Amino acid sequence: MMWKKLLLALTTLSTAVVAAAQEEPSAFNMTRGVTEVSRDAYDMHMLLFWVCVAIGVGVFGVMIWSLIRHRRSRGAKAAKFSENTVVEVVWTAIPVLILVAVAVPATAVLLKTNSPSPEPDVIVDVHGSQWKWEYVYPDEDISFFSNLSSSSRDASQLNAEKSPADAPNYLVDVDNPLVVPAGKDVRLRITSDDVIHSWWVPQLGFKRDAVPGQFNNADIRIDEPGTYRGQCAELCGSGHAYMPVVVEAVTPEAYNEWLAQKKQAAAAEAEEASGPWNREVAMAQGKKIYDSACASCHQANGKGIEGTFPALEGGKITTGPVEGHLKIVIHGSEKNPVMQAYGDQLSDREIAAVVTYERNAWSNDTGDLVTPEAVEAAR
Amino acid sequence: MNQTADSVVDQIEHEHSHHGPRKGPLRWLLTVNHKDVGTMYLVLALVALLVGGVMALVIRAELFQPGLQLTQPQFFNSLTTMHGLTMIFLAIMPGLTGLANWMVPLQVGADDMYWPRVNNWAFWMLPPAAIMLWIGFFMPQGAPGGGWTLYAPLSSTYAPPSIDWVIMAIHIMGISSILGALNIILTILKMRAKGMRLWDMPLFTWTWLITGFLLLLAMPTLAIAVTMLLTDRHLGTAFFDATNGGDPVLFQHIFWFFGHPEVYIMILPAFGIVSEIVPAFSRKPLFGRTSMIWAVIAITFLSAIVWAHHMFTVGLPVEAQVLFMYTTMLIAIPTGIKIFNWVATMWRGSMTFEAPMLWALAFIFLFTIGGFSGLMLADVPADYQYHDTYFVVAHLHYVVVTGSLFAIIAGVYFWLPKWTGHMYNEKLSQWHFWLSAISVNVTFFPMHFAGLAGMPRRIPDYPLQFMDFNMISTVGAFVFGFSQLLFIWLVIQTIRGGKKAGDRPWDGAKGLEWTLSSPPPYHTFTEPPSRQTIHDEGPHGYH
Ligand code: HEM
Ligand SMILES: [Cu+2]
Prior knowledge:
Chain A is an alpha+beta fold. Chain A has helices at residues 2-22, 36-69, 85-113, 150-155, 252-274, 279-298, 316-319, 322-331, 348-360, 372-378; strands at 122-129, 132-137, 142-146, 178-181, 186-192, 197-201, 206-210, 216-220, 226-230, 245-250. Helix content of chain A is 44%, strand content 15%. In chain A, strands 3-2-1-5-8 form a five-stranded mixed sheet. In chain A, strands 4-10-9 form a three-stranded mixed sheet. Chain A has a two-stranded antiparallel ribbon with strand order 6-7. In chain A, helix 6 crosses helix 9 and helix 9 packs across helix 10 (372-378). Chain A is elongated and about 95 Å long. Chain B is mostly helical. Helices cover 68% and strands 0% of the residues of chain B. Chain B is globular and about 65 Å long. The two termini of chain B are 42 Å apart. The chains are: A alpha+beta (379), B mainly alpha (543). Chains A and B meet through helix 2, helix 3 and strand 7 of A and helix 4, helix 9, helix 10, helix 11 and helix 12 of B. Bound molecules: protoporphyrin IX containing FE and copper (II) ion (CU). Protoporphyrin IX containing FE (HEM) binds next to helix 9, helix 11, helix 12, helix 13 and helix 14 of chain B.
C-alpha cells in the first residue's frame, strides 16, 4: 500500500522532470541546448541525477525504515552489533563501481568537449571588460561592443520608474549581439581586458572564463538558427549582472549578408571620421561612444550612481579645465582602476568626440569643441 | 611521611581544584579556563551568526523580485562577500572551536588545554579581527565586493582600500586558528588520561585531532595567498597582475589549496558531533568505529588534492581536469562510508528523538543531499554548466548550513544540559527544530532549480524567469532567520534555570564528560579518571 503510493509519487515526479527537460530552455532543469556539447552535458547531468536518486532511495529508504521500526516507543530493544565486515566491504565496493560507471562516460565527454576542431570556419575573439563584451572578427576586420540594452539598463536602476517586466528580455538583451553562422565550426578565443569574467550561454553548453593575459578557446557548432541568451558568470565587480551574452546564430547566407553590412557601416564611419570636424559631428559620434563605453557606469543620463560612480552632469572634471578631462579619459583614474585608460581603446577622434559630448550633454554647457589634435597633444 | 605536611599539600590541592572563576568583569578578559574560553567562542559565533544572518536577509530581500529595491550593486556585492567571510571565519569555525574547547579536555580527561594562556590569546584575537573585517562598511568606498574567494585582480588592484583591513583580519584569524589547532592537537596527544588509547578516543575528539592538522596545512596557505594580494597592491609585485606578466589563475590555485581543505575543516568536527549523538540516541555503539576514523583520515588526504575542481572553467589542460575529476569523485567513497555507518548505527537501535537527535538526523539527510550535488559538480562536462550558478550556492549551503551549522546546533543541544546543569525547554526546542528544518529547505532547495535554469550566482538582479524560485527562497530565508531567535531565547532560558539535568541526562550517552556533575566544577579532572572509568565510558564499555 505504502510502497504503491511512493512509487506513484516517484513516477509522477520523474515524468514531470522529463517533460520539463524537453522544453527549451527549461524553467527548472538544465537545458538540453543546441550544441553537441550542451546535449552531452545534459545527458551527463541526467545520468548523475538518476544515480543520485537511486542511491538516495536506497539510503533514505533504509534510514526511514529504521526510524519507523527501531524506535523505543515501539518497544525496540537495541541490538549490540557494531561491525560487519561483509556489509562494509559491499558498501565500499558498490560506490566504487558506481563511480567507475559514471567516470567512464564523463571522461569520454570531457575529452571530446576539449578536443579542438581542426579547422574552424569562423574565429571570433571575445574580450570581457567591465561591463560589456567586445567581439573582434580578426579575419574580417570587424569589431564591436555588446552592451546591455538601454531598456534593461533603465529598468535596472535602484527604484527605477520602469518595471523590469516592461523591458524585453530583461538583463539578457544587448544592443549588438554576437552573430555567427549556424551549422559551422566557430572558435571563440576568450580573454579579458581587466578582471576575470566568464562567457556563458546555457544553451551552448559551457562557460569559459575570460582571464586577463590568457586566451581560452571554445569551439562551438550551433545546429539551429536562433537567438541564445546568457550572462557573465564570474563575479567581475558592480556591473556583473549587467553584461549579458547574446548569440544570434543565422544561416550562412544571412551571416555573409550581415558581414557585408557591418563592413559597409564601418566604411561609412571611417569616411565620416575623415570628414570635417564640427560640433554636430562630434556630438553625434560622441553620444554613440558614450552609450557603449561610458554609460554602463556613469549612466545614460550622466548622473552616475551615488557613492560608486561619479556624476558627469555638473561634474568637477567634466565642467572644469579640458586638460583634466582629457587626462582621466586617456590615462584612467589614479585612484580607482575601474575608470580605465581609454587611450588604448579609442582613437584621437573618438576621444575628442566623447569628451566634447560629455562637456555639452545634459545640462553641461561649456560650449567646448575638443579637437583630435588636442587629444594627440594630451597623450 | 610527615603527616602535617601531607595534609597541607592536600589542602592546597583541594583549594586549587575547587576555586571558582575570578570575580568581576576581568574574568572573561583574563580567563585561561578552557570552559570559559569555550563559552566565549560560542558567544562570538552566535553574534557572528546574527551579523552574517542579517546580511543574508538583506541579500534575500533584494532578490525577492527582479529590479533593484534596496541596495546598489556594489553594496550588494559587499554583502555577499562579507556574509561569506563572516559565516566561515567568525561563525562556523569559532563555533566548532568553542565546542572543542569545552569538550576535548573533558573527553580525554585532561584538566585544561595544553597552553591555557595561548588559548586565551587565540580567542581574544578574534574580536579585533571581526572589527577589521567589518570596518569597510563604514569606509568611503565600502567593504570589498570581490567575493569571499577574493579572486585577483578584482580583489587586488581593483579593490577598495578596505580590502587591506580584510587581509589583516584574515591574517589575525589565521594565526588564531593555528594557535587553536596546535593547542587542541597537543591537548589530545599530550594530556590524554593514562589508559585511553588513541583508537578509543571519542569521535568528536578524533575528528578535531585531524582537523587540527588540516588547519596547520590550510591556514598558512591562505596567509600566503592574501599576502601576495597585499604586495600586489602596495609593493609593486605583479603575482596576479597579467598586465605586468603575472597570472590571475595562480591566485586561484593557492586559494583553493587552502579553500578545499577549509571546507573539510568545517565539516570534519561536524561528523564528530553527529557520531557522538547518533549512538547515544540509538542506544547502540557506533557502527564501524575504526572505518569511521579511517574515512576521516582518507578524506583529509584527498581534500588536499582536489582543489582544482573549483577551477574547471579557467582553462586548465584537459589532463588536469580529468585528474581532478577523479580525485574529487574519490572523496564520495569515504563520505558515503560515513553515512552508511550512521544509518547502520541506527539500524535495530532503540531510538528516541530528543532535540540533539533530531538535528543530527536532519544533518544526515540534508548533508547527503549536499553530497549528491557535490558528486554531480565533480563531473566536469556537467560542471561547465553548473559552475558559478545557484546550483553551487545550493550545494554549499546544504553542506555548510544543514551540515556544519546543524551539527553545531545539535552539539549545543546535546551538551547544554552538561554545561548549565539544566534541561532546555523540550517543547520550544521542537518548534525550533521543525521551523528550521522546513524553512531551510524552502530556502535552499529551489536554488538547485534556479541554478539549473541558468541563474548565475552573486548577482543583485536577475532575468524574470528566475523570479518564482527567488521569491520562495526569500520567504524561507526569513522564516529560517527568525526561527533562530527561538534558539537564542532557549539557550538563555536554559542558562538561567529550568529542570535539573542529571549528570548523564541522555541515558545512551557514553564518554568521560558524562561522569562529571552537571554543571561540572570550574576545574575538572584535576584527578585523572580511573582506568575503569575510561574503559566503561569508551567503545568497549557497551559489552
Ligand atoms: C562528496 C563530497 C563533495 C564533493 C564531491 C564536492 C564537490 C564540489 C565541487 C566540484 C565544487 C565546485 C563547484 C563549482 O564551483 O563549479 C564544490 C563547491 C563547494 N563545496 Fe563541495 N563537495 C563535497 C563536499 C563538500 C563539503 C563537505 C563542503 C563543506 C562543508 C563543501 C563545500 C563547498 C563549498 C563552500 C563550495 C563553493 C565554494 C565557492 O565557490 O564559493 N563541499 N564542491
Ligand atoms: Cu572543494
